[in-house]
Fold these 4 entries.
Entry 1:
Amino acid sequence: MHMPEPYRIKMVEPIHLLPKEQREQKLKEAGLNVFSLKAQDVFIDLLTDSGTNAMSDNQWAGIMMGDESYAGCRNFYNLQDTAQSIFECKYIIPTHQGRGAENLLFGLLIKHGQYVLGNVHFDTTEAHITLKGGQPVNLVIDEAYDTSTYHPFKGNVDTQKLEQFIEEHGAENIAFMLITVTCNTVGGQPVSMENIKQVSQICRRHGIKVFIDAARFAENAYFIKTREEAYKDKSIPEIVSEMFSYADGFTFSAKKDALVNIGGMIGIMNDEELYLRLREQVIIYEGFPTYGGLAGRDLEAISRGLREVLDFDYLQSRVGQVEYLGSLLTEAGIPIQTPVGGHAVFVDAGKMLPHIRWDNFPGVALTSELYLEGGVRAVEIGSLLMGKQAPTELVRLTIPRRVYTNSHMDYVAECLSNINKRKEQVRGVRITYEPPVLRHFLARFEWA
Ligand code: F0G
């Protein structure tokens, strides 16, 4: 039987659809870059699942229990207890968000010129690796880039490529391994337990430390439970604990699976020396080690969210909603990354709009059309984001947690289906301005 969401709604936030002429005007003013739109001019916002979550009554109650002492606030200790019990890590360092964690950890671990291996690093991750003098290397399996074939764990690291890379470049030139779960850039695709274990064994054999980019750790655990035979009878907390037993530590953007609007942290399993060095660094860049740039109330909301996200019924309805949108698009004949990921449906804009060349950004063209069609905001994950020709031109329809209903999903699918019917007429775009790093946030375009 189809089960509905395991919660009901007790507060609503009105949203509005601007008339078509105004949407045209707003998009033009934004230089065809949806990042430059005002959120109030967007009807359904699928830009990101990051920090866009709806908190529970329990989390809001926790907000009122914020202890705003500069040092040693009780909410830090609550979060530490929670993290220690879920991830079985000895130490945590709170940070203002995921990239704050990346900045601190990478600064200590990367020596100039060293490689940082991963399945596919997220864009801020890649930027922080590069800024610290490191070289990001993506070793995901080839299936990740073939959107039309099914593979249950497209986020897996190719262990053969990994062994070969270590052999060719030497373990001493590798700073560490970072496994991103789920792997955002290739479609929110999960990594199997088997793969995490193997990668960890290979790395440990060579003395290479393993970290997890844990932003969507619970969604990854859900996929392990539902797709990996050996884990079907294990609970989500058991799976999470095993996943992290293969790592030396993790970076975490709480804005995803902690079901909050801001926050992050670093977790260190055992390495006391690394923890002590991080503790010195966090004071310089984020704040005192018991708040790390966050208010006490934020720490409390993260702590409570981390416990809520482990609920199987929640995860099933969460991923179920993403799958529902994916099935509507497939029915409408729109090419998507198969299977859908944990947090988003990735439309293959390159396949949908084959007449648009990569340097006329099919993904940007599609996001623009989607805003014009129905006030829906999506995001390009393709050549614009990569800063060079990308292996795939994707558009991510990212679903915030506990925010929209399936009726919103029906509407989004209808908008895309309308565009699909007139896809030959969709034009590419040309860049008129681009900043030197992370250009996708601020670039401007005109229709080609
Ligand atoms: N790692 C992954 C896998 C991410 O998806 C993100 C953010 C970060 C790290 C950085 O965390 O935003 O808290 O500093 N992803 C967002 C997104 C921005 O839209 O996918 P942050």
Note: Residues 312-331 form the longest helix (20 residues).
Entry 2:
Amino acid sequence: MCGIVGYIGKANAASILISGLKRLEYRGYDSAGMALLDDERILITKSTGKVSNLSEKARTNWSPELFQRATTGIAHTRWATHGPPTEANAHPHLDQSGEIALVHNGIVENYRALRSRLEGKGHHFYSETDTEVLAHLIGDCDKGDLFQAVCDALHQVEGTFGIAVLSSREPDRIIAARRGSPIVIGVGDGEAIIASDASAILAHTQRVMYLDDNDIANVTMDSVEIRDLNNVPVTREIAELGLDASATEKGGFAHFMLKEIHEQPEALTNAIRGRLDLQLGSSVLAGMGTSQRELAELSRVVMVGCGTSLHAAMVGEYAFEDIADINAEVQQAAEFRYRNPILGNRDFVIAISQSGETADTLAAVKEANQKGAFVMSLVNVVGSTIARETGRGVYLHAGPEISVASTKAFTCQVSVLLMMALKLGRGRRYSREEGMKLAREIESIPELVARVIGKNDLIADIAEGYTKDEHAFYIGRGPMYPVALEGALKLKEISYIHAEGYHAAELKHGPIALLQEGTPVIAVACDVPGKDKTLGNIEECRARGARILGIITEGDDEAAEVMDEFISIPRTHPLVATIPAVVALQIFSYHVARLRGCEIDQPRNLAKSVTVE
Ligand code: F6R
């Protein structure tokens, strides 16, 4: 969603801010803005639409000399929440004096009350945003010490924030703070970069400090001093990012999504490496931070997540029940805390999130912690809020996922869930022989996925036949049911074709009424238990004129026969097969969207990490 970049140092701030914002574009946004400090004045340029619009406008508004000269500034990409994506609503926002500028991610929940109080004191607002209210509040608290003013203002804020604040009265520092919305500070040599996401920092330095909730940082070109909101110093270690800037570049692919689809064999190798014990038929997941004995005492697994991560959890549900012989359930993270879930210390709650920043998943983690459950996370972004909030967890090691549509995170999530189920299962009734067999199948996942990626051209040809459709149905059963849901989600989000996923048996309870001559039905009918019934459901669709594209197992002639066309995936364990099956659907969606001329990496209205509820 929104993105923050701030720079203080000796270099050209405007270029650094713009290239930082470009690296944050993948998060999704609809307007952008930048404030530079020059000659003890704050100068602001904003624009709707892309960062390139902002860049052009800044070059028109500001002289080349100013552009070159300013060495301190803050910038923002906004994903509209309070008020439409207009220039007036774009950040940075100024306080009443015009001498303090603020960029903000998150939501000030009590902004109405704060605004009317400030209006009562004579403040005037030009935007509809909660952020402008916070800028005024900081200005109102400023009695000559910006750091203290930010502390005092944040004490009055209910809600979430990641902020960077600049004052023309104190030009040698930027104040940054966080609560529930990430802030990372890159510590360079005579310079510092503040960002909401490490990808904006990568090109400058590998050395970063992550702020914790309620941390406030005084950032100068030579130092970073962090205190809590009561102005008490706290120590945050400098961490190494360990990421190459090329990880956030397209590397010759037309789109990040295509690159990330192709990266899957490598990402999966990284997710699996060192985590399988082929001799014991088990897995080694140190991040779970628990012994086999404690695992054996757990009575239930509850997985929470949103969107694609929720679909991975649904595959996990089958895995935990089938392999680990333990009750497993999936709960939509947004609903979790409102249903007052029944949880205790024998419940194992797994929060699944690529970004580690999804607001609903984070709230579910807090609720599970509150109720004393055994909580861990399955997250991709190292140091993200959910990873920090859970304390224990397993990272995916999938590398940065830039495309809004999640691909490699899903396949890595499912692989790690399979390994978790294996670890739990081996402490219960899963035999060594079964464990060894499954461990070998899991080990082969990168190779299975590479074989499906090898069918890219064939899948692209098939996709040509689906570019004119406006509706599509995806069906599957057993662990292939969440695969069908994920396939439908991928197609709708990037190609804007209305696609729905259903359990194969569910169609005839209503949705079959929509089938007409030629309606596409994408049937995930791999050779796993229940396939025969799915083939029966496919016949029902065919009888109503539907056009069937099957995802089937290689060599399954029986399945091939009922399909109009098909993509085959290698034969493997039924749960493992969900991974190559989904990869086939990712590639299919990608090509349909490409052929329809869609903006694949940043689909309309979507954001990469959804940090509002
Ligand atoms: C779809 C997609 C989203 C995310 C969802 C959760 O392609 O990417 O549905 O899966 O917003 O995000 P994370 O996994 O970051 O919590």
Note: The pocket of fructose -6-phosphate is lined by residues 306-309, 353-355, 358, 361, 405-406, 489, 493, 609-610 (CB under 6 Å).
Entry 3:
Amino acid sequence: MSNTNSSTELQNGFGRVIGIGSFLPKDVLTNDDLAKIVETNDQWITERTGIKTRHISDPKTDTTESMAIAAAKAAVKDSGIDPSEIGLVVVASTTPNILFPALAACVQAAVDADNAMCFDLNAACPGFITAFVTAQNYIRSGMVNCALVVGAENLTNYVDFEDRGTCILFGDGAGAVVLKADENVGYDAIMRAAGKRGECLRCESYMQKGREKTPEFIKSNYINMDGQTVFKFAVTEVPRVIDNLLTKTGTDPDEIDYFILHQANRRIIESVAKHLKQPIEKFPMNIENTGNTSSASIPILLDEMKKAGKLGEGKKKVVISSFGAGLIWGAFQTEI
Ligand code: UT7
């Protein structure tokens, strides 16, 4: 069985991506809008991050749940399957609007996946790849034949709009894929974590018995980040895990059509491309218009790529990699 971090060949009998969908809220926040809120400017944000605009949820209409459902419905429609075939719904989110029931159960109800088991998973930004890897193992084990994997985030709920180091980065949205067992699909993954280095990216729950609501505590309920430490972690570990994965699958980097990375910062992506000695054209990006949407970033990008005719017929060899709070990171290889 693959995904044990020890095999040397791609294995068969995993899930193939047969449907992709996404949802972005209609409201857009530009760098110039942010410059009216904090001391920043379009040039600084563009040069340091690659971000120009980000979609932000409308508090009247958009919740993590509603965005997850919209993306899931689009992915199921795109797949063409009968929803009763879905055996697993897993939603990755680090910003759910409800603690229970699981968002996955809400998605299950909305898409009529009446035969599915459901759970949510929180692995912060790498939540989508963690959910994807989890679903692949449910398929590989034979427990389910078809899975719906969603990444959904309402990060602007947790952004401190007085902190110019974080409020410029994040956006909202959701993306989803449908996986179906296929003996002929290649798939392998490596996942890693370093909880001992997790302090650099943290957000505490407001609901903590016994915690006085001091200004420090209230600050801790927003996204707190040491940006430089996260940046260094990403540019070190992402190329390393991709190198390790390619070695494990016996694939030359030149054989990979696309390296699809978590959209956190254009400079991180450029650094990974340089390390892997691969042209930047093989690293698709939409960060300019979405910002960092955490666990939603990869499926939103996959959907854009499919709609642009770059993916979807199972012919493109891709490596997909993400990183973030935990610290957690990893990569998988497949064909889409
Ligand atoms: O999903 C994973 C989540 N997180 C990430 O991927 C974040 C990774 N890190 C980053 O993307 C970058 O570290 C940031 C974009 C957050 C910051 O860029 P940086 O190049 O690391 O800037 P810095 O924090 O070293 O700050 C450089 C300067 C500082 O001023 P001084 O001390 O040199 O005078 C900051 O105060 O830039 C200042 N600064 C800003 N200036 C204008 C910080 N934020 C801003 C801002 N506008 N928004």
Note: Confidence is low (pLDDT under 50) at residues 1-12.
Entry 4:
Amino acid sequence: MALLPILKYPDPRLATKAAVVTEFDDKLKQLAAGVGLAATQVDRHIRLIVIDITEEKNDLKVLVNPELVESSEETKPWEEGCLSLPGIYDKVTRPAKVKVKAQDLEGNFFELECDGLLAVCVQHEMDHLEGTVFVDHLSMLKKQRIRHKIRKMRLEEERAAKEEA
Ligand code: NI
């Protein structure tokens, strides 16, 4: 499995809207095997997300060109985190259940009914394809605090790296 570097917030490339996938070729399959989550996060701006919510990591769901078909009126707050924002967690309220239409790696259409953690993950990853990260759902004030915290963490990391050198 290829490990691609993950873009870290607030990298402007995370705000890119991903393009529709039209070629279901080997390149797409290779990327699906390497992407942890949304292709956007590894700087590939195509509509591809890969999700595995199992602890054993044995139920990989690949969604190409995912589209929301239905969202429940019922909403639910969930503490979210993101590989692009290491160390940052906050509650985001989203529809509790969603139905998604997507294509598999061969281009076949399928539908997926999601609730619980899967519903959260699917919506979180689909957001990435629109150039949105979970902190964009938070208040301006919270977002400012998070950006401040990230800057501080980065400075500390740089300092630690210098001391090691
Ligand atoms: Ni994420």
Note: The longest strand covers residues 61-71.
